[in-house]
Structures are given as C-alpha cells and as structure tokens.
C-alpha cells in the first residue's frame, strides 16, 4: 500500500526567524557541558546522548514560514509559499522542472506575506517549458500572484518568468481531484479570509488547518466546516501562542495548542502537528508552550470518563516528515 507523505518545509509563522550565531554557540556549549556532566566521554556516546536530548536542545523548531507538501504515488502538492518553499524549490529543480519538463501544483490558504514570500524563489518558475499551477478559493489569486512579481518589489515581472502559469479557483467545501489525492477546502477562522484543506488519499486523511484562531469550537458553530476535523489521521494546527497569549491577542487570527487538542480529543483526530510558531519565540519558549500543552492534555485525558480520544501530538519543526 502506498503511503501518504507529509513534509513541513516551514513551521514558523508571521516572519522568518533565523537563529543568531550566539544562540547556536550557547546551545553547543551547554550540550558539551551536559555531555560530560552525564559521564559520557567517547565519540561513540554521542548518538546515545543526542537521543536523550529534547528537540529544543537539538536545533529547535526552524525559522521558515509556512510551506507544506503532500505526496501520494506520483502526485505532489504544495501548500503555501512561505520561505520554506525555497528549499523545496531545490528538490523540484533536481527533477524534470530543472529541464523545463516539469509541473508543479501550489495551493494557497490565504495571501498574508508569510505565506507568499517564498514564491519568487521557486526556481522552476523561471525555466521555460515548466507548467506551474496555482490554486485558491479566493478569486483574487491571479492579481495576488502578479503583485508579488511587480516592480519595484521584484526585478522580474510575472510576464517574463519563463514557465507557463495557470491559476485555478477552488470551490468552497467541494472536492477537487489531483491524481490520487482528493482535496476539499474548508474555511478557517482567520482574517482576509483563510481556507484549510482536507487531503484524502489511499484511505488516509490529512487536514491542514493553518492559519486559524478557531473561534468556532462547537460542532454547531463549525457547521459546514466540521468535516475538516472529522475522520482525520493527521492534522496540522496553528499554535502560534500560549493559551494566555490568545486572550491578549484575540482577533489576531491564531490559536494555542490546547484549542487544537480539544478539537482532536473530541473528534478522534489521531495525530496533530502544531505549527506557525511565533517568530519572537525562542526554542526554549516553544518547548515551554509544548510542556504546558502536555500538562493540559494529560489533565483532560485523566478527567475524561471515556468520551475523549487519546491523541498523539507534537510541535512541528522545519523539515519534519510524516508518513500515513
Ligand atoms: Zn501565517
Ligand atoms: Zn495569516
């Protein structure tokens, strides 16, 4: 049976967040200190020592803005063109797109800068012969793409990029088929607005729910968008803030992990990846938010009398791959 593969190329939200060299150096020093403090001394011990370290001590969560990929059999779909798209571009260039004989399919959730800034760095766009397809529910898709390449914001106007471009409008809550993958857009709770996607392939379901504040929580309030959260094997969900921050930043369009966990426990979502981490958050702060969410999840499961489902979940990082 073929697997559905999901890769998070950018897990950060709002703005890229590269790590300063002094932070990398301080992290390396603290790892060396701990290596010896734990009684290790040989190079053969390094792999074991690393396996004992949490994610935030080993490079953190990454700094690229949202870009994800869903693959099944020969079909390859991209979601959003955040700065994570630049590295994905290299993979496309190593295939038929490098010779001007490829095609690419990119779905947009919405057009905030953090979901667009990688687009001019998707090199297959500049190779004549490639067919590049863009998709969105929002009718302004063609104007948005053109605006990204408009002078003086970018030196090459859209008419001169080389590849043949196609814009497609998706119907809200209507399934579209891409090879073996079926995709249905459902509305999220985010300004301007924003659409999540439910991907169904090979009997597996991936729901991409970024960016969202998820102000509609009950089944009744979610109404026609409830299917986005039902029958789901893996959900990517917005966790830009801690629960306290969501109160201070109400109407900013982002959620906390506990909100996604409530949904997942109620609807039986098997696994959740939390992303769109705040650009101002250090790896330690994201890890603290993860620990806070862990306490919340465990208390909810303990208090549940069987009506809540157990969920496997974690905070996503750039480059993370999951197979369903
Ligand atoms: Zn965003
Ligand atoms: Zn946004």
Describe this structure in words.
There is one protein chain. The protein is of the alpha/beta class and 324 residues long. It contains 8 helices and 14 strands. A 7-stranded mixed beta sheet has the order 6-5-4-3-2-1-14, with helices on one face. A 7-stranded mixed beta sheet has the order 7-8-9-10-11-12-13. β8 and β9 (195-201) form a beta hairpin. α7 (257-267) runs parallel beside α8. The structure holds zinc ion (ZN) (2 copies).
Give the overall form: globular
CATH superfamily of the largest domain: Ribonuclease Z/Hydroxyacylglutathione hydrolase-like
- CATH architecture verdict of the largest domain: 4-Layer Sandwich
In what order do the strands lie side by side in the largest sheet? 6-5-4-3-2-1-14
The low-pLDDT segments are none
Kindly state the number of beta strands: 14
Distance between the termini: 11 Å
Number of helices: 8
CATH topology of the largest domain: Metallo-beta-lactamase, Chain A
Short summary of the structure?
This protein is an alpha/beta fold and 324 residues long. It is 26% helix and 23% strand.
Task: Walk me through the topology.
Layout: E1 4-10, H1 21-37, H2 46-52, E2 67-72, E3 75-79, H3 85-93, E4 103-107, E5 131-136, H4 141-148, E6 164-169, E7 176-178, E8 181-187, E9 195-201, E10 204-209, H5 219-222, E11 234-238, H6 243-248, H7 257-267, E12 271-275, H8 283-303, E13 312-315, E14 320-323
Parallel strand pairs: 3-4, 4-5, 5-6, 10-11, 11-12, 12-13
Antiparallel strand pairs: 1-2, 1-14, 2-3, 7-8, 8-9, 9-10
The chain binds zinc ion (2 copies).
């Amino acid at each position: 049976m073929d697997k559905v593969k999901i890769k998070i190329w950018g897990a950060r939200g709002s703005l890229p967040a590269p790590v300063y060299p002094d932070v990398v150096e301080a992290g390396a020093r603290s790892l060396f200190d701990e290596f010896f403090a734990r009684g290790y001394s040989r190079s053969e011990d390094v792999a074991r020592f690393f396996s004992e370290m949490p994610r935030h001590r080993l490079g953190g969560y990454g700094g690229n803005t949202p870009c994800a990929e869903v693959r099944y059999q020969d079909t390859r779909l991209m979601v959003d063109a955040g700065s994570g798209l630049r590295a994905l571009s290299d993979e496309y260039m190593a295939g038929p797109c490098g010779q001007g004989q490829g095609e690419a399919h990119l779905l947009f959730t919405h057009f905030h800068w953090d979901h667009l800034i990688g687009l001019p760095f998707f090199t297959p766009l500049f190779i004549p012969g490639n067919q590049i397809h863009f998709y969105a529910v929002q009718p302004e898709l063609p104007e948005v793409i053109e605006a990204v390449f408009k002078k003086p914001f970018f030196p090459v106007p859209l008419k001169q990029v080389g590849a043949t471009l196609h814009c497609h409008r998706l119907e809200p809550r209507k399934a579209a088929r891409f090879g073996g993958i079926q995709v249905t857009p459902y509305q999220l709770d985010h300004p301007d607005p924003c659409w999540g996607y439910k991907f169904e392939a090979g009997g597996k379901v991936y729901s991409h729910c970024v960016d969202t504040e998820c102000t509609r929580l009950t089944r009744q309030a979610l109404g026609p968008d409830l299917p986005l959260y039902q029958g789901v094997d893996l959900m990517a969900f917005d966790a830009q803030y801690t629960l306290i921050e969501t109160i201070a930043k109400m109407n900013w369009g982002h959620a906390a992990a506990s909100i996604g966990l409530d949904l997942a426990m109620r609807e039986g979502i098997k696994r959740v990846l939390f992303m769109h981490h705040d650009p101002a958050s250090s790896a330690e702060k994201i890890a603290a938010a993860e620990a806070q969410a862990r306490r919340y999840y465990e208390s909810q499961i303990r208090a549940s009398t069987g009506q809540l489902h157990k969920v496997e979940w974690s905070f996503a990082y750039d480059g993370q791959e999951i197979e369903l």
